[in-house]
Amino acid sequence: MSARPKSAPRLAFIAAATPAARAARAALETRYGSVAPAQADYIVALGGDGLMLQALHRNIRRQTPIFGMNLGTVGFLMNQYRATGLPARLKAAREVTLMVRTGSDAAAAAAQARDAVQGIDRSLAVSTNTMQAAYEWYASDRRSQGLVVGTLGGIALLLAGLGVYSVMAIMVNARTREIAIRMALGSSAGAVRRLMLGRGLSVAAAGIAAGLVLATALTAFLSSIFLGVRAFDARVLVAAVSLLGGVTLLASWWPARRAMRVDPMVTLKQ
After folding, report:
1. How far apart are CA 47 and CA 73, in angstroms?
2. How many angstroms separate the CA atoms of 115 and 142, rounded?
3. Sign of CA dihedral 234, 238, 243, 245
4. Structural contact between residues 12 and 59, judged by C-beta atoms closer than 8 angstroms
5. Rounded to whole angstroms, how far apart are CA atoms 182 and 259?
6. How many C-beta atoms lie closer than 10 Å to residue 6's C-beta?
7. Same domain, 173 and 64
8. pLDDT-derived band of residue 208, with 50, 70 and 90 as boundaries?
9. Which of 115-119, 153-157, 253-257 has the highest mean pLDDT?
10. pLDDT, greater one: 92 or 223
11. pLDDT tens per residue across span 165-179
12. 86 with 101, same domain?
């Protein structure tokens, strides 16, 4: 393997499993040197479109430019193979994006666009894609992130409901004698229920108020991560507050119902 000049780019070579591609890779590595893809300035793919797509998929997180040279059967995405002058070709290579609006079949329009470009220069690598496919590719990671955040939010909501229920149950147990005295002095079961529910909802209101402040501060950050999330969405906030209020009311209902069933005579004799 020859020594690489200090000013030369660091190249990583990957090749299809064909004799021609493997021989070209060996010759290029001897000529230009090679490094692992993680340390490369450029990745050079030797093969066909299938190898190019695999290289794009495996290295998409690194954002390393990939330069393909056709040594396969199908090479619409590849440049012509030439061993000489590779660093200069890499330096001169530019990616150009053309957007074509059509009212006809997208596949047919893509084929026509490809033929028109390669009619000017057959050595140009041309790849086509629809806007919907590009959007789906871009949004796939965001959907995964949204699913994770939504799952964690559901778990947090469940834990919050269990926490409110536990606090209300402890409160009812601690105030059993007080409830018995209230009922002995004439308080109705409905009044006791409203008292317990009011205590639970007051605690929830304090938590919701703090959550609204944090949510307003974080939505600007979330809007930069998730598609369709606005910096301030009143409908989402109202829905969240309603959901939390409903969970709190449900979690407070059973302890409040147990408080209604306190027997003053039995409790005060204990």
Report:
1. 8
2. 34
3. positive
4. no
5. 11
6. 5
7. no
8. confident
9. 153-157
10. 92
11. 787 778 777 777 777
12. no
- Residue showing tokens 């317990």: 196
Question: Where in the sequence is the domain holding 214, given as residue range(s)?
Answer: 139-269
- Residue type at position 83: A
Residue 73's CATH number: 3.40.50.10330
The pLDDT score that the predictor gives to residue 1 is 46
> Which amino acid would we find at residue 231?
A
Instruction: Give SS3 for 233.
Output: coil
Q: Do 68 and 107 lie in a common domain?
A: no
pLDDT digits (tens, 9 = 90+) for 185-200: 777 777 877 877 787 7
pLDDT > 70: what percent of the chain? 81
In a domain, 89, yes or no: yes
CA distance 267 to 11: 83
Check if the beta carbon of residue 179 is closer than 8 Å to that of residue 190.
no
In a domain, 134, yes or no: no
List of residues 6+ apart from 189 with CB closer than 8 A = 183, 260, 261
Locus of tokens 């991560």:
225
Task: Indicate the SS3 state at residue 66.
Answer: strand
Handedness of CA 221, 224, 229, 232 (dihedral sign): positive
pLDDT (mean) for 15-42: 92
pTM for this model (two decimals): 0.44
- Residues 52, 77 contacting (CB under 8 angstroms): yes
DSSP letter at 11 equals E
> Residue 3 burial by CB count (10 A; 0-12/13-18/19+): exposed, middle or buried?
exposed
**Paired strand residues for 46:** 15, 69
d(CA 242, CA 255): 21
